[in-house]
């Protein structure tokens, strides 16, 4: 309860907390909504699972391997 009073007294902290909650409720998730998806080990980019070929096995952003999710 005391923490809440401190946040309300600090307008910057209050705005940041409210923006975080708004984003959590309103923003769509970043992961694709397909049946399966893969995530890069290195840069954590998501993409829909694609046919099994050499190009599909590594991240186009950083070249790291993908892991099935």
Features:
69 residues; alpha+beta; 2 domains; three-stranded antiparallel β-sheet; 2 helices
Strand order of the largest sheet: 2-1-3
Quantity of strands, as a count: 3
Radius of gyration: 19 Å
Low-confidence stretches: none
Helix/strand structural class:
alpha+beta
Q: Quote the beta fraction.
A: 5-15%
- Amino- and carboxy-terminal Cα gap: 39 Å
Overall pLDDT score: 68
Counting DSSP H or I runs of 4 or more residues, the number of helices is: 2
**Number of structurally distinct domains:** 2
Task: Name the overall outline.
Answer: elongated
Report the major sheet.
3 strands, antiparallel
Helix content: 25-40%
Secondary-structure element series: HHEEE
Descriptive overview:
Helix content is 35%, strand content 14%. It is α+β, with helices and mostly antiparallel strands and 69 residues long. The chain has two domains: 1-28, no CATH class; 31-69, no CATH class. It has a three-stranded antiparallel β-sheet with strand order 2-1-3, with no helix packed on it. β1 and β2 form a beta hairpin. The chain starts with a helix and ends with a strand.
């Amino acid at each position: 309860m005391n923490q809440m009073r401190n946040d309300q007294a600090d307008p910057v902290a209050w705005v940041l907390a409210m923006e975080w909650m708004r984003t959590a409720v309103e923003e769509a998730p970043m992961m694709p909504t397909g049946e399966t998806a893969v995530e890069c080990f290195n840069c954590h980019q998501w993409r829909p699972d694609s046919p099994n070929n050499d190009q599909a096995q590594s991240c186009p952003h950083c070249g790291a391997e993908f892991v099935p999710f």
